[in-house]
Design a protein that fits this description.
It is a single chain. Helix content is about 35%, strand content about 15%. By secondary structure, it is α/β, with parallel strands linked by helices. About 45% of the residues are buried.
Length: about 325
Protein backbone atom coordinates (compact mmCIF):
# COMPACT_ATOMS: atom_id res chain seq x y z
CA UNK A 1 0.00 0.00 0.00
CA UNK A 2 1.16 3.53 -0.75
CA UNK A 3 2.63 5.32 2.26
CA UNK A 4 0.29 8.27 2.76
CA UNK A 5 0.97 11.07 5.26
CA UNK A 6 -1.79 12.22 7.57
CA UNK A 7 -3.19 15.64 6.80
CA UNK A 8 -5.59 17.99 8.62
CA UNK A 9 -9.15 18.39 7.41
CA UNK A 10 -9.70 21.49 5.25
CA UNK A 11 -12.36 23.76 6.71
CA UNK A 12 -15.11 23.38 4.12
CA UNK A 13 -18.52 24.93 4.90
CA UNK A 14 -21.41 22.51 5.29
CA UNK A 15 -25.19 22.65 4.85
CA UNK A 16 -27.93 20.91 6.82
CA UNK A 17 -30.20 18.55 4.93
CA UNK A 18 -33.84 19.04 5.87
CA UNK A 19 -34.93 15.38 5.99
CA UNK A 20 -31.71 13.75 7.15
CA UNK A 21 -32.05 11.00 9.77
CA UNK A 22 -29.18 11.96 12.04
CA UNK A 23 -26.55 12.06 9.33
CA UNK A 24 -23.75 14.56 9.19
CA UNK A 25 -24.16 17.84 7.34
CA UNK A 26 -23.18 17.92 3.67
CA UNK A 27 -19.94 19.70 2.65
CA UNK A 28 -20.81 22.34 0.06
CA UNK A 29 -18.16 21.06 -2.37
CA UNK A 30 -17.92 17.46 -3.45
CA UNK A 31 -15.59 15.59 -5.77
CA UNK A 32 -17.29 14.10 -8.81
CA UNK A 33 -16.21 10.65 -9.99
CA UNK A 34 -17.76 10.43 -13.47
CA UNK A 35 -14.80 10.32 -15.83
CA UNK A 36 -14.40 10.09 -19.60
CA UNK A 37 -12.40 7.99 -20.30
CA UNK A 38 -12.72 5.95 -17.11
CA UNK A 39 -9.74 4.28 -15.43
CA UNK A 40 -10.11 2.64 -12.00
CA UNK A 41 -6.46 3.13 -11.04
CA UNK A 42 -6.48 6.80 -11.98
CA UNK A 43 -9.71 7.34 -10.02
CA UNK A 44 -8.35 5.63 -6.89
CA UNK A 45 -5.23 7.77 -6.95
CA UNK A 46 -7.29 10.92 -7.52
CA UNK A 47 -9.60 10.16 -4.57
CA UNK A 48 -6.60 9.66 -2.27
CA UNK A 49 -5.13 12.96 -3.44
CA UNK A 50 -8.51 14.63 -2.91
CA UNK A 51 -8.72 13.35 0.66
CA UNK A 52 -5.20 14.64 1.29
CA UNK A 53 -6.25 18.02 -0.12
CA UNK A 54 -9.27 18.17 2.21
CA UNK A 55 -12.22 16.84 0.22
CA UNK A 56 -14.70 14.90 2.34
CA UNK A 57 -17.71 14.70 0.01
CA UNK A 58 -17.61 12.20 -2.87
CA UNK A 59 -20.30 11.84 -5.52
CA UNK A 60 -20.73 8.56 -7.39
CA UNK A 61 -23.43 6.48 -9.10
CA UNK A 62 -23.96 2.98 -10.38
CA UNK A 63 -23.88 4.46 -13.89
CA UNK A 64 -20.37 5.86 -13.41
CA UNK A 65 -18.75 2.48 -12.57
CA UNK A 66 -16.79 4.40 -9.95
CA UNK A 67 -18.32 2.92 -6.79
CA UNK A 68 -15.81 0.06 -6.50
CA UNK A 69 -12.59 2.09 -6.89
CA UNK A 70 -14.03 4.85 -4.69
CA UNK A 71 -14.74 2.29 -1.99
CA UNK A 72 -11.23 0.87 -2.28
CA UNK A 73 -9.70 4.35 -2.04
CA UNK A 74 -11.74 5.26 1.04
CA UNK A 75 -10.73 2.01 2.76
CA UNK A 76 -7.08 2.68 1.92
CA UNK A 77 -7.34 6.25 3.24
CA UNK A 78 -8.65 4.98 6.58
CA UNK A 79 -5.97 2.31 6.82
CA UNK A 80 -3.27 4.87 6.02
CA UNK A 81 -4.53 7.30 8.64
CA UNK A 82 -5.61 10.03 6.23
CA UNK A 83 -8.98 9.95 7.99
CA UNK A 84 -9.93 8.30 11.26
CA UNK A 85 -13.15 6.67 10.11
CA UNK A 86 -15.78 6.47 7.38
CA UNK A 87 -17.90 8.88 9.45
CA UNK A 88 -15.64 11.75 8.35
CA UNK A 89 -16.80 11.25 4.75
CA UNK A 90 -20.03 12.18 3.01
CA UNK A 91 -20.85 9.75 0.21
CA UNK A 92 -23.57 10.25 -2.39
CA UNK A 93 -24.68 7.62 -4.90
CA UNK A 94 -27.60 7.36 -7.29
CA UNK A 95 -30.33 4.98 -8.45
CA UNK A 96 -30.16 4.32 -12.18
CA UNK A 97 -33.22 4.21 -14.45
CA UNK A 98 -33.13 0.43 -14.93
CA UNK A 99 -33.50 0.02 -11.16
CA UNK A 100 -36.12 2.76 -10.76
CA UNK A 101 -38.88 0.27 -9.95
CA UNK A 102 -40.31 -0.29 -6.46
CA UNK A 103 -38.96 -3.82 -6.05
CA UNK A 104 -35.48 -2.99 -7.38
CA UNK A 105 -34.63 0.12 -5.33
CA UNK A 106 -33.47 -1.68 -2.18
CA UNK A 107 -31.39 -4.30 -4.06
CA UNK A 108 -29.77 -1.53 -6.10
CA UNK A 109 -28.79 0.38 -2.97
CA UNK A 110 -27.49 -2.78 -1.33
CA UNK A 111 -25.35 -3.46 -4.39
CA UNK A 112 -23.95 0.09 -4.28
CA UNK A 113 -23.08 -0.39 -0.62
CA UNK A 114 -21.27 -3.65 -1.42
CA UNK A 115 -19.28 -1.96 -4.16
CA UNK A 116 -18.41 0.95 -1.87
CA UNK A 117 -17.62 -1.31 1.12
CA UNK A 118 -19.97 0.80 3.24
CA UNK A 119 -22.77 0.10 5.69
CA UNK A 120 -24.68 3.22 4.74
CA UNK A 121 -24.76 6.15 2.33
CA UNK A 122 -25.10 9.75 3.41
CA UNK A 123 -27.29 10.56 0.41
CA UNK A 124 -29.06 8.42 -2.19
CA UNK A 125 -30.58 10.12 -5.24
CA UNK A 126 -32.96 9.11 -8.01
CA UNK A 127 -30.63 9.81 -10.92
CA UNK A 128 -33.32 10.71 -13.50
CA UNK A 129 -37.09 11.18 -13.41
CA UNK A 130 -37.32 8.20 -15.75
CA UNK A 131 -37.52 4.43 -15.47
CA UNK A 132 -36.24 1.91 -17.98
CA UNK A 133 -36.56 -1.78 -18.66
CA UNK A 134 -34.51 -3.64 -16.03
CA UNK A 135 -31.18 -4.83 -17.32
CA UNK A 136 -27.92 -3.34 -18.48
CA UNK A 137 -26.93 0.05 -17.08
CA UNK A 138 -25.97 2.55 -19.77
CA UNK A 139 -26.44 6.11 -21.00
CA UNK A 140 -28.29 7.32 -22.91
CA UNK A 141 -31.22 5.03 -22.28
CA UNK A 142 -32.49 3.74 -25.66
CA UNK A 143 -35.83 5.31 -26.42
CA UNK A 144 -37.57 1.94 -26.82
CA UNK A 145 -36.46 0.99 -23.29
CA UNK A 146 -37.64 4.17 -21.55
CA UNK A 147 -40.65 3.89 -19.24
CA UNK A 148 -42.61 6.48 -17.29
CA UNK A 149 -41.65 6.37 -13.64
CA UNK A 150 -44.17 5.38 -10.99
CA UNK A 151 -42.99 8.19 -8.73
CA UNK A 152 -45.14 7.19 -5.76
CA UNK A 153 -43.90 3.62 -5.52
CA UNK A 154 -40.26 4.39 -6.33
CA UNK A 155 -40.14 7.17 -3.75
CA UNK A 156 -41.84 4.93 -1.18
CA UNK A 157 -38.99 2.44 -1.69
CA UNK A 158 -36.45 5.25 -1.30
CA UNK A 159 -38.11 6.23 1.98
CA UNK A 160 -37.88 2.60 3.14
CA UNK A 161 -34.13 2.68 2.45
CA UNK A 162 -33.75 5.69 4.73
CA UNK A 163 -35.90 4.14 7.46
CA UNK A 164 -33.72 1.01 7.31
CA UNK A 165 -30.66 3.17 7.95
CA UNK A 166 -29.04 2.27 4.63
CA UNK A 167 -28.93 5.94 3.69
CA UNK A 168 -29.10 8.99 5.94
CA UNK A 169 -30.87 11.15 3.36
CA UNK A 170 -32.68 10.74 0.05
CA UNK A 171 -33.16 13.07 -2.88
CA UNK A 172 -33.44 13.43 -6.62
CA UNK A 173 -31.46 14.58 -9.63
CA UNK A 174 -32.54 16.31 -12.85
CA UNK A 175 -36.01 17.08 -11.47
CA UNK A 176 -37.95 20.12 -12.68
CA UNK A 177 -40.16 22.33 -10.50
CA UNK A 178 -43.21 20.48 -11.82
CA UNK A 179 -41.86 17.06 -10.89
CA UNK A 180 -40.72 18.24 -7.46
CA UNK A 181 -44.13 19.79 -6.81
CA UNK A 182 -45.74 16.45 -7.63
CA UNK A 183 -43.36 14.63 -5.29
CA UNK A 184 -44.16 16.95 -2.39
CA UNK A 185 -47.84 16.07 -2.80
CA UNK A 186 -47.28 12.49 -1.61
CA UNK A 187 -43.82 12.19 -0.02
CA UNK A 188 -43.67 11.24 3.65
CA UNK A 189 -39.96 12.04 3.72
CA UNK A 190 -39.43 15.01 1.38
CA UNK A 191 -36.37 15.01 -0.88
CA UNK A 192 -33.42 16.72 0.78
CA UNK A 193 -31.45 17.44 -2.41
CA UNK A 194 -32.00 18.04 -6.12
CA UNK A 195 -28.83 17.70 -8.18
CA UNK A 196 -29.02 19.48 -11.54
CA UNK A 197 -26.88 21.26 -14.11
CA UNK A 198 -26.09 24.79 -12.93
CA UNK A 199 -23.35 27.18 -14.00
CA UNK A 200 -23.06 30.92 -14.72
CA UNK A 201 -24.25 30.04 -18.24
CA UNK A 202 -27.31 28.11 -16.98
CA UNK A 203 -28.30 29.71 -13.69
CA UNK A 204 -31.69 27.99 -13.17
CA UNK A 205 -33.17 30.90 -11.22
CA UNK A 206 -36.75 29.58 -11.27
CA UNK A 207 -35.70 26.17 -9.98
CA UNK A 208 -33.43 27.76 -7.37
CA UNK A 209 -36.29 29.84 -6.05
CA UNK A 210 -38.64 26.87 -5.92
CA UNK A 211 -36.17 24.62 -4.12
CA UNK A 212 -35.37 27.34 -1.59
CA UNK A 213 -39.08 27.74 -0.82
CA UNK A 214 -39.34 23.98 -0.19
CA UNK A 215 -36.16 23.58 1.82
CA UNK A 216 -34.49 21.46 -0.87
CA UNK A 217 -30.72 21.87 -1.19
CA UNK A 218 -29.66 22.38 -4.80
CA UNK A 219 -26.43 20.72 -5.89
CA UNK A 220 -24.86 21.90 -9.14
CA UNK A 221 -23.27 19.28 -11.33
CA UNK A 222 -20.93 20.28 -14.16
CA UNK A 223 -20.54 23.80 -12.71
CA UNK A 224 -17.52 24.18 -15.01
CA UNK A 225 -19.24 22.69 -18.06
CA UNK A 226 -17.54 19.26 -17.96
CA UNK A 227 -14.98 20.39 -20.52
CA UNK A 228 -13.18 17.56 -22.27
CA UNK A 229 -15.94 14.98 -21.94
CA UNK A 230 -18.22 13.64 -24.65
CA UNK A 231 -21.26 15.18 -23.00
CA UNK A 232 -19.70 18.43 -21.82
CA UNK A 233 -18.77 21.78 -23.32
CA UNK A 234 -15.92 24.30 -23.25
CA UNK A 235 -18.33 27.25 -23.20
CA UNK A 236 -18.03 27.86 -19.45
CA UNK A 237 -14.25 27.69 -19.12
CA UNK A 238 -13.75 29.68 -22.34
CA UNK A 239 -16.34 32.36 -21.57
CA UNK A 240 -14.84 35.82 -22.09
CA UNK A 241 -16.75 37.51 -19.27
CA UNK A 242 -15.70 34.88 -16.74
CA UNK A 243 -12.09 35.13 -17.95
CA UNK A 244 -12.11 38.89 -17.36
CA UNK A 245 -13.52 38.49 -13.85
CA UNK A 246 -10.95 35.81 -13.06
CA UNK A 247 -8.12 38.03 -14.25
CA UNK A 248 -9.33 40.93 -12.11
CA UNK A 249 -9.29 38.76 -8.98
CA UNK A 250 -6.11 36.86 -9.91
CA UNK A 251 -8.18 33.66 -9.83
CA UNK A 252 -8.97 30.89 -12.28
CA UNK A 253 -12.23 30.73 -14.23
CA UNK A 254 -13.06 27.58 -12.26
CA UNK A 255 -12.63 29.45 -8.98
CA UNK A 256 -14.92 32.25 -10.20
CA UNK A 257 -17.62 29.72 -11.18
CA UNK A 258 -17.41 27.87 -7.88
CA UNK A 259 -17.32 31.07 -5.83
CA UNK A 260 -20.40 32.26 -7.72
CA UNK A 261 -22.19 28.99 -6.92
CA UNK A 262 -21.21 29.25 -3.25
CA UNK A 263 -22.49 32.82 -3.00
CA UNK A 264 -25.79 31.67 -4.53
CA UNK A 265 -26.24 29.27 -1.61
CA UNK A 266 -25.63 26.24 -3.82
CA UNK A 267 -23.66 23.11 -3.15
CA UNK A 268 -21.67 21.71 -6.05
CA UNK A 269 -19.85 18.67 -7.36
CA UNK A 270 -16.71 19.31 -9.40
CA UNK A 271 -14.47 16.73 -11.04
CA UNK A 272 -10.76 17.19 -11.50
CA UNK A 273 -8.12 14.50 -11.15
CA UNK A 274 -5.32 17.07 -11.42
CA UNK A 275 -3.68 17.57 -8.01
CA UNK A 276 -3.09 21.32 -8.45
CA UNK A 277 -6.59 22.04 -9.75
CA UNK A 278 -8.14 19.99 -6.93
CA UNK A 279 -6.51 22.33 -4.44
CA UNK A 280 -7.36 25.45 -6.45
CA UNK A 281 -11.03 24.45 -6.46
CA UNK A 282 -11.01 24.50 -2.65
CA UNK A 283 -9.53 28.01 -2.51
CA UNK A 284 -12.82 29.84 -2.94
CA UNK A 285 -13.94 30.57 0.61
CA UNK A 286 -11.77 33.57 1.56
CA UNK A 287 -12.68 36.12 -1.12
CA UNK A 288 -15.83 37.57 -2.70
CA UNK A 289 -17.23 38.61 -6.05
CA UNK A 290 -18.12 42.27 -6.45
CA UNK A 291 -21.41 43.87 -7.44
CA UNK A 292 -19.84 44.68 -10.81
CA UNK A 293 -18.90 41.00 -11.23
CA UNK A 294 -22.53 40.09 -10.62
CA UNK A 295 -23.74 42.64 -13.13
CA UNK A 296 -21.53 41.04 -15.77
CA UNK A 297 -22.45 37.46 -14.83
CA UNK A 298 -26.15 38.28 -14.88
CA UNK A 299 -25.78 39.54 -18.45
CA UNK A 300 -24.34 36.24 -19.71
CA UNK A 301 -26.71 34.68 -22.22
CA UNK A 302 -28.45 31.71 -20.63
CA UNK A 303 -28.77 28.33 -22.29
CA UNK A 304 -28.58 24.71 -21.23
CA UNK A 305 -25.19 23.26 -22.01
CA UNK A 306 -25.95 19.55 -21.92
CA UNK A 307 -26.60 17.51 -23.88
CA UNK A 308 -24.72 19.07 -26.76
CA UNK A 309 -27.05 20.29 -29.55
CA UNK A 310 -25.50 17.88 -32.04
CA UNK A 311 -26.36 14.98 -29.73
CA UNK A 312 -30.09 15.80 -29.70
CA UNK A 313 -32.21 14.32 -32.48
CA UNK A 314 -36.00 14.42 -32.95
CA UNK A 315 -36.34 10.64 -32.65
CA UNK A 316 -33.41 9.85 -30.39
CA UNK A 317 -33.08 9.33 -26.64
CA UNK A 318 -31.52 12.71 -26.01
CA UNK A 319 -34.58 14.43 -27.42
CA UNK A 320 -36.80 12.79 -24.83
CA UNK A 321 -34.26 13.50 -22.08
CA UNK A 322 -34.27 17.17 -23.12
CA UNK A 323 -38.03 17.13 -22.65
CA UNK A 324 -37.54 15.56 -19.23
CA UNK A 325 -35.19 18.36 -18.22
CA UNK A 326 -37.64 20.99 -19.39
CA UNK A 327 -40.46 19.38 -17.40
CA UNK A 328 -42.57 18.75 -20.47
CA UNK A 329 -43.07 15.04 -19.81
Amino acid sequence: MTNLPQVPTFNIPEVKLSSSSGGRNMPVIGMGTMADPFDETVLKEAVLEAIKAGYRHFDTASLYKSEKPLGEAMAEAIEAGLIKSRDELFVTSKLWCTDAHHHLVLPALQNSLRMLQLEYLDLYLIHWPLSAKPGKIGFPVPKDEQLPMDFNSVWAAMEDCQRLGLTKSIGVSNFSCKKLENMFSFATIPPSVNQVEISPLWQQQKLRGFCKSKGVVLTAYSPLGAKGTRWGTDEVMDNGTLKEIAKAHNKTVAQVCLRWAFEQGLTFVVKSFNKERMRENLQIFDWELTSDDYKQINEIKQHRLMPKPEMVSPNGPFKSLQELWDGEI
